[in-house]
Amino acid sequence: MFDALYLEKPESGFSATRRQLSDEELAAATPDADVTVRIEYSTINYKDALAITNRSPVVRRWPMVPGIDGAGVVESSSHPGFAAGDRVILNGWGVGETHWGCLAQRARLEGDWLVAMPAGIDARRAMAIGTAGYTAMLCVMALERRGVMPAQGEILVTGAAGGVGSVAIALLARLGFRVVASTGRAAEADYLRALGAAEVIDRATLSEPGKPLQKERWAGVVDAVGSHTLANACAQTKYRGTVAACGLAGGMDFPATVAPFILRGVTLVGVDSVMCPIDERREAWRRLATELDPAQLERITTIVGLDEALKLAPQMLAGKVRGRVAVDVNR
Ligand code: NDP
To answer: Of ligand 1's atoms, which has the minimum distance to the CA of residue 50?
Structure first.
């Protein structure tokens, strides 16, 4: 038996509880899995919070063990790439949505989904980074691929005090960029500066409808918010600058015009972590292991147990959680 969070949706209504599951139940729910992992740490991402609160249709199979991220040790494997004792990371691939996830002490996963834990990090650090941090790195890589460099100007990071935003600030500042953090939480200004933000702006300056073209300011943008914030960020991006869009914390709509793209040659890059090809994942994790200052990651991270993870989910959706939350599944 092992402990897990468990989401059910019978006729009587949705419930999210902590309970004990058997290896037989796990095997029956994951017939295609070829690697069994003893999970040490998982996380609560925005998407996990949506699943645990049943706030939007993240879960597409019931019952479900949530947890889109996990890190731990392989217990057994029939996959040629992994053997018992290997340390691995899992992010996405529909885990915690259509496949039983990692907010549990044990998970059965497909070997093709797993990334070998890079040298220099352990399960706790990997899950402090989690999908949010790995997505932040994918955004940084997207900006770099378009040739965005520190000499070209400032980078705007929206949703700054959240998971993606916090890690993006730490990474970009370490790479030498001047980072401007947009937040709705003025009280977190010192935290954002400590992560490396050179300037902190009120997110209200970006969240209202704006003109199609505005004063050029950003060489690049990492946007976790969407909606008017993304539209305004594009409208303020400098000639040939790049905007990496990864989130919808402020809304899924994109009320923009084509003006920044056709008149300023701005590039809007979509960033998806869930189905991202394995080589790009490995590259992102290799860089996260070496380029994210461990002291900064500690500043960003809160560690909770499985029970607290249940309680934290609605707070995360209310925008009240700062940085990253890693879950010690043995607590
Ligand atoms: P968090 O909840 O940790 O952070 C989101 C942040 O967005 C909040 O901290 C807040 O920042 C800001 N925010 C919240 N509500 C609003 C609002 N109504 N208007 C404007 N800003 C708001 O989430 P994550 O950082 O983990 O994820 C951020 C987004 O990225 C989510 O939408 C998530 O679904 C998405 N995501 C996408 C991935 C992908 O593969 N594309 C992967 C991971 C995440 P502040 O308080 O500083 O204003």
So the answer is: 34
Q: How far apart are CA 34 and CA 79, in angstroms?
A: 6
Give the 3-state DSSP-derived string for 123-174, with helices as H, strands as E and coil as C.
Answer: HHHHHHHHHHHHHHHHHHHHHHHCCCCHHHCEEEEECCCCHHHHHHHHHHHH
Report the nearest-CA residue for atom 12 of ligand 1. Answer: 159
CA of 216 to the centre of ligand 1 (A): 24
- Report which secondary-structure segment, H or E, holds 8: strand 2-8
- On whether the CB atoms of residues 229 and 203 are closer than 8 A, the answer is yes
Please write the tens of the pLDDT for every residue from 116-141: 999 999 999 999 999 999 999 999 99
* End-to-end Cα, the chain, rounded Å: 15
Whole-structure pTM value: 0.97
- 157 has pLDDT over 90: yes
pLDDT of residue 30: 98
Residue 162 Cα to ligand 1 midpoint, Å, equals: 6
Q: Supply the pLDDT for residue 118.
A: 96
Atom of ligand 1 nearest to the CA of 323: 3
Output the CA 267–ligand 1 centroid distance in Å: 21
pLDDT tens for 71-118 read: 999 999 999 999 999 999 999 999 999 999 999 999 999 999 999 999
Domains and CATH numbers, the chain: 2-117+295-328 (3.90.180.10), 131-270 (3.40.50.720)
Residues with CB under 6 A from ligand 1: 45-47, 131-132, 135, 159-165, 183-185, 203, 207, 224-225, 229, 246-250, 271-274, 316, 319, 321
pLDDT attached to residue 216: 98
The mean pLDDT value of the chain amounts to: 97
